[in-house]
């Protein structure tokens, strides 16, 4: 209050001075403020000046703080955000700020988010989280996406996929249901943003780990959602369907399941086998629908051509004998086959990964030469790939009745090439337990009958 000067008439009574000493600072300032002569225009101008300076300091400082906390560099200042910041800088969205996606438009939403974010400061001080995950409350909304992107798009940027974006949005389907990995490559679901590996997240490594299959919409998400729609469901109504699962919640569920399964190991193992078999059967059913071999009366067709505009069946596949004679082509061009026939693309769930193994694999890929024909690799692929096993798990028509086939199949297994075809489904020797080899689709192996060996072995 010194700007208004000292009061000329001072109290000289000792008792009054003693009482003033007992009065608090705020009350004394308030008394001085009340004693100011507001009829004096000079004092009113002084008050206006002080108010303006105060507003500039308060609002200017507040704006500066908001601008600072809205910048990506502020997010990168925390060690635990290294994976998120590294993937952001390596993504196609690196030219915008974090808040343009993570905070809904509007000043009120901005302030509300800042208040809620105080808990992040608390966690940073009291104990860094083991893993950063996106909660259901923090899911990116369509409002954020539509600030830059138009909903009037019927195909993807590549021109291949026919996707009615407007139709999806009008059904209240969140953009992140399909585009969850566009910036951070689903690192939380992959389990590669935990505390123990944060030191490996450099810009160079981020570019290696930002795989296209995690950045682009996952075909498995489309298939899973379409199948649920065909069953009368609307899965996107549940927010949890659109964000990566929280590892703590997943672990809690696993712990609960482990408690229930205590003392029932044998029955649990049987249930797991049954679940896996049901899952494989479901995948194979969808694959057969996709390639047009199994038609169903559904709301959304699961055939490839329903969504893919440029997908064409290769000319080699149109040959009459392709189904029975494609093995040779598979051996020679397996790398091309798996571009389409790779069942991992058909699954919505993202498997857990190890960041060190991924980095080593990337180094090997850069050093590795072009694919060389490898019968063992093709055999394992035919057994594990759901595309292949959709047909290879069934008994071939050419095998006829067992009693006739057993006595006459030798003529079909004379050459090494003919035997190679047999080994896709059958093992030569009795499979050893825990050998690490891929399990054959049938438990019938050659030495089950040929216990004395084979002619080729005896002539060597």
UniProtKB/TrEMBL annotation:
InterPro entries referenced in this protein's UniProt entry, alphabetically: Cytochrome_c-type_ET, Multihaem_cyt_sf, NapC/NirT_cyt_c_N, NapC/NirT_cytc_sf
Which GO BP annotation is one of this protein's?
Answer: anaerobic respiration
Q: Where does the protein principally reside?
A: membrane
NapC/NirT cytochrome c N-terminal domain residues are 46-186
Q: Which UniProt keywords apply?
A: Cell membrane, Electron transport, Heme, Iron, Membrane, Metal-binding, Transmembrane, Transmembrane helix, Transport
Has keyword Transmembrane?
yes
Q: Where is this region: Disordered?
A: 254-282
Q: Name one GO molecular function term.
A: metal ion binding
* TM stretches of this protein: 47-66
One matching Pfam family, short form? Cytochrom_NNT
Q: Report the superkingdom from the record.
A: Bacteria
Subcellular location field: Cell membrane
Cite the record's Basic and acidic residues compositional bias ranges: 269-282
An example GO CC term for this entry is: plasma membrane
Q: Which SUPFAM superfamilies match?
A: Multiheme cytochromes (SSF48695)
In which family does this protein belong, per the annotation? Belongs to the NapC/NirT/NrfH family.
Q: What is this protein called?
A: Cytochrome c-type protein
């Amino acid at each position: 209050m010194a700007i208004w000067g000292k009061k000329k008439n001072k109290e000289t009574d000792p008792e009054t001075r003693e009482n003033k000493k007992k009065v608090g600072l705020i009350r004394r300032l308030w008394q001085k403020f009340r004693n100011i002569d507001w009829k004096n225009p000079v004092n009113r101008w002084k008050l206006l000046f002080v108010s303006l300076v105060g507003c500039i300091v308060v609002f200017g400082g507040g704006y500066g703080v908001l601008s600072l906390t809205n910048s990506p560099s502020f997010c990168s200042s925390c060690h635990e955000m290294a994976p998120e910041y590294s993937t952001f800088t390596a993504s196609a969205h690196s030219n915008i700020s974090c808040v343009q996606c993570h905070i809904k438009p509007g000043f009120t939403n901005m302030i509300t988010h800042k208040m809620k974010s105080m808990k992040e400061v608390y966690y940073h001080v009291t104990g860094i989280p083991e893993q950063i995950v996106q909660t259901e409350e923090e899911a990116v909304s369509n409002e954020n996406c539509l600030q830059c992107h138009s909903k009037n798009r019927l195909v993807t940027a590549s021109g291949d996929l026919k996707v009615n974006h407007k139709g999806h949005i009008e059904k209240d389907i969140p953009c992140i249901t399909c585009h969850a990995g566009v910036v951070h490559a689903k690192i939380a679901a992959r389990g590669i943003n935990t505390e123990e590996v944060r030191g490996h997240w450099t810009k160079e490594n981020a570019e290696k780990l930002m795989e296209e299959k995690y950045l682009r919409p996952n075909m498995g998400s489309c298939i899973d959602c379409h199948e649920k729609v065909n069953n009368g469901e609307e899965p996107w109504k549940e927010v949890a369907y659109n964000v990566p699962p929280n590892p703590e919640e997943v672990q809690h569920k696993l712990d609960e399941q482990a408690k229930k399964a205590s003392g029932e190991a044998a029955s649990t193992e049987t249930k797991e086998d049954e679940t896996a078999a049901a899952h494989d059967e479901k995948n194979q059913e969808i694959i057969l629908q996709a390639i047009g071999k199994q038609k169903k009366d559904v709301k959304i067709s699961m055939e490839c051509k329903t969504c893919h505009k440029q997908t064409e069946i290769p000319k080699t596949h149109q040959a009459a004998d392709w189904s029975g004679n494609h093995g040779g082509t598979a051996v020679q061009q397996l790398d091309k086959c798996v571009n389409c026939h790779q069942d991992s693309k058909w699954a919505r769930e993202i498997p857990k990964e190890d960041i060190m193994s991924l980095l080593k694999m990337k180094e090997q890929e850069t050093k590795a030469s072009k694919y060389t024909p490898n019968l063992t690799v093709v055999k394992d692929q035919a057994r594990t790939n759901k595309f292949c096993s959709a047909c290879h798990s069934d008994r071939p028509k050419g095998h006829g009745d067992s009693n006739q086939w057993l006595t006459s199949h030798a003529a079909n297994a004379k050459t090494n090439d003919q035997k190679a075809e047999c080994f896709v489904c059958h093992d030569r020797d009795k499979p050893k337990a825990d050998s690490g080899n891929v399990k054959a689709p049938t438990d019938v192996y050659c030495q089950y009958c040929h216990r004395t060996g084979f002619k080729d072995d005896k002539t060597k």
